[in-house]
Amino acid sequence: MGGIHGLLSRRAGHHSRAAPQHVVDLGAGTARLLVNILREFPGSTAVALEIDAPSCEEARRAAERAGVGDRLTVMVRSVQSVATDPSPVADADVIHAGFVFHDMMPDEEDLADGVLRQCRDALNPGGLLAITDAAPYVTNERERRFSAAVTYFHKEFMGRRLLTDEEWQAKLTAAGFSSVETVPLRFPTGRLHIARKI
Ligand SMILES: C[S@@+](CC[C@H](N)C(=O)[O-])C[C@H]1O[C@@H](n2cnc3c(N)ncnc32)[C@H](O)[C@@H]1O
Fold first, then answer.
1. Which residues form the Methyltransferase type domain (predicted)?
2. Is the pLDDT of residue 56 over 80?
């Protein structure tokens, strides 16, 4: 198990008090990540924020099937809306956003920065924001072919700019986070940027 779920599992394995209490996923899709987290941590609650209404319906059904429907709140909303109404991220100790922030780059970068600041302010002390996203034009042998294709596709056909590890670290630091760590994922180009609030 990799990514943010793996990180939370390992952390809770080391310190039982580190189990997440309230997790928010921005651009949650059908909430597969949150359903798995809720199953592993029976004391936790979660919010799935997702702009696509049919995905939200499927998220609710998946949560019911898994027996965690009473602990998952699904909101049909845009990530951008968090810049002006941070209520979906209130009281979180973990906020995740997977492969959704790059959709705001470059046209809505200021809005994205506003969302990051709201996340930082809303997190409980000791909380973390985890951004999973694709890194552009990675040069190492394992990732370079796939990274070149993904970067080109996003730029030429979608008008999107993927951020480098350094750009994410600068952006998250500017949003007020005290430390930022970047972890490469097994998925080529995949990066997990973990920003902590003291
Ligand atoms: C590439 S998928 C990633 C899904 C999931 N986060 C994951 O990592 O597997 C992006 C998801 O974000 C949603 N999305 C795209 N733009 C969004 C926005 N502005 N606000 C909220 N959700 C958005 C899409 O509908 C889709 O479910």
1. 24-129
2. yes
Rounded to 5 degrees, what are φ and ψ at 125? -55, 135
Q: Whose CA is nearest to atom 22 of ligand 1?
A: 27
pLDDT at 1 over 70: no
Asked if pLDDT for residue 17 goes beyond 80, the answer is no
Which residue CA neighbors atom 26 of ligand 1 most closely? 29
Q: Tell me whether the omega of the peptide bond preceding residue 106 falls within 30 degrees of 0, making it cis.
A: yes
Predicted TM-score (pTM) of the model is 0.97
Q: To test the ligand 1 pocket, which listed residue (32, 51, 185) has its Cβ within 8 A of the most ligand atoms?
A: 51
DSSP for residue 177: -
Cβ 115 under 6 angstroms from ligand 1: no
Structure tokens at 135: 């890194």
Classify 50 as helix, strand or coil.
Answer: strand
Question: Whole-angstrom Cα distance, residue 60 to residue 63?
Answer: 5
